[in-house]
Design goal:
Blueprint lengths: L10 E6 L2 E2 L3 E4 L2 E3 L1 H13 L2 E6 L2 H7 L7 E2 L7 H4 L2 E3 L4 E3 L1 E6 L14 E5 L3 H9 L3 E5 L2 H9 L5 E5 H11 L4 E4 L6 E3 L2 E3 L4 H14 L2 H10 L2
The structure holds glutamine.
The site of glutamine has 12 residues, from loops.
Length: 227
């Protein structure tokens, strides 16, 4: 335990999602995942305490600019639009969007979805992508498992979301019933979110550098993404 010699240890509030495997999700009621391990390691390294609060993803994107929380970590993609209201840490994970369909579907890529129903999550980069690049009917759910469910029950023709999350559902959860089709559509990088002008950004970036240097970051990555 780190005890500040010259006063009290700071406690910062951290907003997170709890339904985004493998970055943050509930396992037997406990919040776990890559982001949860990372933010705890950052807090240890930088010598501050954190208080994690769980909420819907789109709520985090809205809450950070209003300074209701000191930080947000939720597999949040760094985008130019978000950067108008949010400062981000250095990128800590490379992702991208992929399309997935139910086994047996005729859809082979994003080029085939115009006029069809594509499920995704409210407020996500996938929702933006569908709006900007397709003529699909977009069915955006507050929680992403509902989008996969919509495809499996044939209420939606496809789902668009971040590769690591889709991969998990395709490989682990649905026993091959859900299949990724086509290429990875975008390159996206995740960053930790802060209110504009936050002085914590430099401290967190320095902690990430230190965790990369001493191998802790690699260990956490290996734990969640290694085979
Ligand atoms: N990376 C995606 C985004 O930023 C999804 C994040 C999530 O669902 N937690 O929109």
């Amino acid at each position: 335990e780190e005890a500040a010699s010259d006063g009290e240890t700071e406690t910062y509030s951290v907003a997170t999602d709890n339904n985004y495997i493998p970055f943050e999700f509930l396992e037997d009621g406990e919040l776990v995942g890559f982001d949860i391990d990372l933010i705890n390691a950052i807090a240890d390294e930088a010598g501050f305490e954190i208080e994690i609060e769980q909420m819907e993803f789109s709520g985090i994107v809205a809450a950070i600019p209003s300074e209701r929380f000191d930080m947000g970590i939720a597999g949040m993609t760094i985008t130019e639009e978000r950067q108008e209201n949010i400062d981000f840490s250095q990128p800590y994970y490379d992702a991208g969007l992929v399309l997935a369909v139910k086994d047996g579907s005729d859809i082979q890529s994003i080029d085939d979805v115009d006029g069809l129903t594509v499920a995704t999550r409210v407020g996500s980069t996938s929702e933006d992508y569908l709006n900007e690049n397709t003529e699909a009917n977009i069915e955006a759910f507050p929680e992403i498992p509902e989008a996969y469910q919509a495809v499996l029950t044939e209420r939606a023709d496809a789902v668009l979301y971040d590769l690591p999350n889709v991969q998990y559902y395709a490989e682990t959860e649905t026993g091959g019933e859900l299949q990724i089709v086509g290429d990875t559509l975008t390159g996206e990088q995740y960053g930790i979110a802060f209110p504009k002008g936050s002085e914590l950004v430099d401290e967190v970036d320095a902690a990430i550098d230190a965790l990369k240097e001493d191998g802790t970051f690699g260990d956490i990555y290996e734990k969640w993404f290694g085979d």
